[in-house]
Amino acid sequence: MTAQDSQTDSLSASSTGQQESQSPTAAEIQAWLVSHLAAVLEVDPTQVDVATPFDRYGLDSVAAIGLTGDLEEWLGYDLDPTLLYDYPTIEAVSRHLAEEIKAN
Amino acid sequence: MEQATIANPGASAEAVRHHYDVSNEFYRLWLDPTMSYSAAIWEEGDSFEAAQVRKLDFHIRQARAGGARRVLDIGCGWGPMLRRLVETHQVEQAVGLTLSHNQAAWIRSFNQPRIEVRVESWSDHRPVEAYEAIISMGAFEHFARPNMTDEARVEGYRHFFRRCHEWLKPGGWLSLETIVYEKARREDISEFFITEIYPESDLPTLADIAKASERLFEIVRLRNDRDEAERTWREWLAKLRANRKAAVALVGEEMVRRYEKYLKLSIIGFHVANMGQLRLAMHRIDRPRD
Question: Could you count the other beta carbons within 10 Å of the beta carbon of residue B220?
Answer without folding.
Answer: 11
